[in-house]
Specification:
This protein has 193 residues and is mainly beta. 6% of the residues lie in helices and 31% in strands. It folds into 2 domains: 34-143, Sandwich (Jelly Rolls), CATH 2.60.120.10; 148-193, no CATH class.
């Protein structure tokens, strides 16, 4: 996974708050060696539903009668949930595997307080209620299980360790495709595979 994160020139030096949450979705084994691709989907295209109790944006997948225009390679669920103080939302079993991750504010789940920056795996098949005493922003992440284990080292992910070793060698030898217009190159970390 090679990518470049840059601030546009007009925003450099401007004081602002930026949120970022990077997720890596595992590819099915049959698609691991396909050509890389990138598609940008702007905020106006993302479906959103707002009520007095919660605001829900479906970034990837289908939920609460909405479907994202983002096309994943396997069943994936990625939902941005904003809860006002006193807000609540029932989360049905929208995927066989689901987890919640709070990026801002604490919330309650089954009468337990959940702090920010902690991922909680939800029980399979259950509808759960999230409640916020103060404003909170929670990400719902889910999907179907992968077709086997995956290995990760630095920017490399594969179902085969030997492919990660080969990719690391290709990276070191500058034999990987470059991002158009990007001149920066980061060497491999010194941590062994």
């Amino acid at each position: 996974i090679a990518h470049s994160e840059r601030t546009p020139p007009e925003l450099r030096g401007v004081r602002r708050r930026t949120h970022g949450l990077q997720l890596w979705a595992g590819m099915p084994k049959a698609l691991e060696e396909r050509e890389p691709s990138f598609t940008h989907t702007g905020k106006p295209a993302i479906p959103e539903d707002e009520s007095e109790h919660a605001s829900v944006r479906v970034l990837v997948g289908r939920a609460w009668g909405m479907e994202s225009p983002v096309t994943p390679v396997s069943e994936t669920l990625y939902v941005d949930i904003s809860l006002p103080a006193g807000g609540r939302l029932d989360i049905p079993p929208l995927a066989s595997e689901r987890a919640l991750y709070a990026v801002d504010g604490a919330y309650r789940l089954r009468d337990k307080s959940m702090e920010p920056y902690v991922m909680v795996v939800l029980p399979a098949g259950d509808t759960v209620r999230v409640e916020a005493e103060t404003p909170a922003r929670v990400m719902l992440i889910g999907g179907e299980p992968l077709d086997g284990p995956r290995f990760i080292w630095w920017n490399f992910v594969s179902s085969r360790r030997e492919r990660i070793t080969a990719a690391a060698s290709e990276w070191s030898a500058h034999q990987t495709p470059r991002i158009e217009g990007e001149t920066e190159w980061i060497p491999l970390p010194s941590v062994p595979l």
